[in-house]
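cron nightly-structures :: item 1 of 1
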Amino acid sequence: MQFRDYKPLNNANDITHFFFSKEKEEDKGIDIKYESVVRTTDLNWEQQFSNFKLLNYEKLAPFTGKYFALSQNVMDIVEKMEKKYNFDYDNMCIIFHRGLSKCWETNLAPYDEYIRKAREIMDKDAVIMLQSDETEFFDALKQSFSNAIILDEMCYMSKQYVEKAPNVELALHPDIRVNQELHFLSIVKIMSKARTVITGSGNIAFWLCLMRGNADGVHQYLSPKEYIYDVKNDTYDPNKTDFWL
């Protein structure tokens, strides 16, 4: 059901190749030897809400390279956007906030926490790019970073509508969802190339780090909720007050 929601209307076909390379596995030149169990992280935490600095990048790299190499469709969009915005990756600071329904699963960083962290760690001449699915995030951070890059290609919405549509894609007409998703995956790739990333925790930030191959220069906000969907969360620590990793 979840994957069907992201497809064009009345389309039950497999659209994986839109996003990931359909090159034959044997032609990618990656031979994975299953000699031991490969774990995303050695912590017994859900991977999207774990410390991304502790992911087993070296062991995961063959899998991401073989099964999740980005399609030419995505890489063409990346190249087009790089030419349009002239990204200076070596001098670029991404501030990424996955809002909306993510608040049901983890405590989100307050907007002023992003502002404080950015001012604390970035160079004074750094180029900031803001990325989020939440209108209020842009409204708040543009007041402090008026020259920040905001990409024209992405859609976002107010968090007051989250009960009707948990994420932006589900608020769009089905026939334009794939195009939006292709652009968003392209933007995740772009964010992964920036020198500095300030981000909350979730699957998008998790994959951003996998694309990056490490969490160097990544400043992650991780504040587990006491309960997730009414289930006690073992990673919750009531004594913790600093949530930046």
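cron nightly-structures :: done
Residues 4-10+59-232 form a domain with the Rossmann fold fold (CATH 3.40.50.11350).
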